[in-house]
Amino acid sequence: MSAPMISVRNLAKRFGDNQVLRGIDLDVQKGEIVGIIGPSGSGKSTMLRCLNFLEQYEGGEIQFDGATVGYRDGPNGKRIGDSEAKLRMLRAQIGMVFQNFNLFPHMTVLGNVIEGPVVVKGQPKAQATTEALALLERVGLADKANAYPSTLSGGQQQRVGIARSLAMKPKAMLFDEPTSSLDPELVGEVLDVMQSLAEAGMTMLIATHEMAFIQEIAHRVVFIDGGKVVEQGPPAQIFAQPTHPRTIDFLKRVRVYKA
Ligand SMILES: Nc1ncnc2c1ncn2[C@@H]1O[C@H](COP(=O)(O)OP(=O)(O)O)[C@@H](O)[C@H]1O
Ligand SMILES: [Mg+2]
């Protein structure tokens, strides 16, 4: 078996006195879809942000495509971080989609999608534009290329967010509650786009409360509580036969498990 696409060992992160991640271990294979579930404040977003190198972490290592990246132990117990330029490159390879879209409001949809390829990767604008229009077609927004984000619905903005990540040709995608700020009737259009990515073989980590969706598309569900992976397994097993008391308690509270 080849090396995992993403491998996390003993990841530890604190904010001041608050130890948020307490030794996370996680492997994600190429093409695997992993659902991340857990109570609010359990560390899901922080873990994803560490995987995108938006947060420094004081302990543990992350391997991406077989190489240690981000921050690691150096001599004399010092931590060594990759350069900001290297981190920017890594970020392009591990796309991230946020709950609140984070689009640039002063740029058109097309401007948002070509920004990364042109500014970060130095891609010629004409080529970036051609590729961006194809991506907008793929997420069903070809007709919105020249619109500004504020004129779009939340579901449309989030689909632009996904197209913007895809424009960097990432090897993996991280989703942090991508539908949590959407009106219910707009959730489906975003999940449809995510499902089409899954079908195309994208490696995906998805933190979400959309349990039915996870049940449908994830190969594996990881339950995080208190900054640790408490239990993991195929959705059918975790949702129907959870074994850890904290998993059972959480799944009862979100009404997925009734026993
Ligand atoms: N930038 C930050 N500064 C201080 N504390 C933070 C910051 N981000 C998250 N936290 C804290 O880290 C803990 C985990 O938060 P988070 O990773 O957002 O959990 P989740 O996504 O599972 O709800 C919470 O106690 C939260 O208050
Ligand atoms: Mg969160």
Biggest sheet layout = 6 strands, mixed
Which spans of ≥5 residues are poorly predicted at pLDDT below 50?
A: none
- The number of helices is 9
Approximate helicity band: 25-40%
Total count of strands: 12
Number of self-contained structural domains: 1
CATH H level: which superfamily?
P-loop containing nucleotide triphosphate hydrolases
Instruction: Please identify the structural class as seen in this structure.
Output: alpha/beta
What would the CATH topology be?
Answer: Rossmann fold
What general outline do the C-alpha atoms trace? globular
Highest CATH level, the class: Alpha Beta
Overall CATH architecture: 3-Layer(aba) Sandwich
Identify the bound ligands.
adenosine-5'-diphosphate, magnesium ion
Could you tell me the mean pLDDT?
95
Order of helices and strands: EEEHEEEEHEHHHEHEHEEHH
